[in-house]
Amino acid sequence: MSNPFFIAGRIQNPDDFVGRKAEISRIFSALETGYTGQAQHFNIVAPRRMGKSSLLYYLTRTYSQNIPHAQAYRVIYVDLDHPRCHTRSALLSHILEQLGIEHPLPLKLEEFYDSIAEQRERPDAIWPVVCVDEFEHLIKRKDEFPDSFYDTWRSLGNNNLLSIIVASQSPLNQLARQEKLTSPFFNIFTLMRLGEFTPQAAQQLIARGNFSPEEAERVLDLGGRHPYKLQLAAKLLYAAKADSQPVDWGGIKKDFRQQAAYIFDDPAQTHWTRRWSRKLCRWAAAAFRTVGRLILVIFNRNEHADDNAAVWAGVVTVVIILAVLLGWLNLDMLKNTWRFIFPLE
Q1: In this predicted structure, which of 127-136, 203-212, 252-261, 288-297 has the lowest mean pLDDT?
Q2: Which stretches of the chain are assigned E, i.e. beta strand?
Q3: pLDDT value at position 269?
Q4: What does residue 163 show for φ and ψ, rounded to 5 degrees?
Q5: Which one, 76, 174, 238, 260, has least CB within 10 Å?
Q6: Nearest-CA neighbor of 196 among 229, 170, 165, 221?
């Protein structure tokens, strides 16, 4: 059986797509208003390998099952890495072709606008939803795509002629400022940050491998809930088990860290370091909370205070002890500080 885990490129088959239920529901609910003439636009923001491209492509493949009156919509995917998207005329022509709208060649910006607007007046009009991936590539080509280009797109959106969903590694308005673009187009979007998988989505993904509970736990420990890293960890284990040899977990971890470091250019950011950092933070918080509750009881404070109050009481106590040990506080200063923090009732 072929390896069911993917680490290269966007996911093509909707059946292989996992998670993002909340984001998908939110986007499709917003797109429903397009049919009534109220356009909404989204900027999906996430670091590399978080699944932005797969999410955009999934929307284009499943909208017919998720939007009422889906026959009135046309949701398309535009990959700005494609050579046809590197010039203004070719990009606009590529979009209209996918929408099934006839247009002249070569295509001018105003002709693109008119083509979209005119089809909206026809009895068989569609509601265009344009999903644009890797939007950074467009912004960096300022000579080909100046502010006037984005102003046209803003007008299309504001006049309820289409909906726009774009994916980028940073928010569009931040990218625009970096490139000194001033079009108000970059402010029409609802920001949607794409994070790691939910625990349920992570478990759903791991279940594809038919791993034992112990193996599934070790895959999750290695890859965390990061979409790419979890797929990578599961893929390595699945391949190792396919060899019908005892699983070499040391070798799997080594391969995982090498490949993760190669993709993300930062060995320190592999999941195991973050995992231990989170554990240390939890242990520290628990220790501060225990000390804080003890102090609150000693000074006749409410021993049932919430966790935050107990943690802060513990932090203050530890800081004072360290200050005394280091000679920063003498006895009189300590008494005054203690009375200030824990005044007599």
Answers
A1: 288-297
A2: 42-45, 73-79, 127-133, 163-168, 190-193
A3: 46
A4: -115, 145
A5: 174
A6: 229
Please tell me whether residue 212 adopts helix, strand or coil conformation: coil
Mapped onto helix, strand or coil, the DSSP state of residue 158 is helix
Burial environment of residue 240 by CB neighbours within 10 A (0 to 12, 13 to 18, 19 or more):
middle
List the end-to-end C-alpha distance of the chain, in Å, as a whole number: 72
Among residues 6, 11, 60, 5, which one has the least CA distance to residue 31?
60
Query: What DSSP state is assigned to residue 132?
Result: E
Three-state SS sequence of 58-95:
HHHHHHHHHCCCHHHEEEEEEECCCHHHCCHHHHHHHH
| Of 26, 197, 30, 199, residue with least CA distance to 129 | 30
d(CA 99, CA 95): 6
Q: Which long-range contacts (CB under 8 A, 24 or more apart) does 174-182 make?
A: 175/135, 175/136, 175/139, 176/139, 179/139, 179/140, 179/142, 181/139, 181/142, 181/147, 181/150, 182/147
- Of all helices (H) and strands (E), which one includes residue 289? helix 271-298
List, in sequence order, every residue forming a beta bridge with 74; answer none if it has no partner. Answer: 128
Token couple for 222: 């290695």
List, for residues 47-94, the tens digit of each pLDDT value: 988 999 999 999 999 999 998 888 889 999 999 988 888 999 999 999
Task: Respond yes or no on whether the N-terminal peptide bond of residue 227 is cis (omega within 30° of 0).
Answer: no
What letters, b where the CB count within 10 A reaches 16 and e where it falls short, cover 34-68?
Answer: beeeebbbbbbbbeebbbbbbbbbbbbbbbeebbe
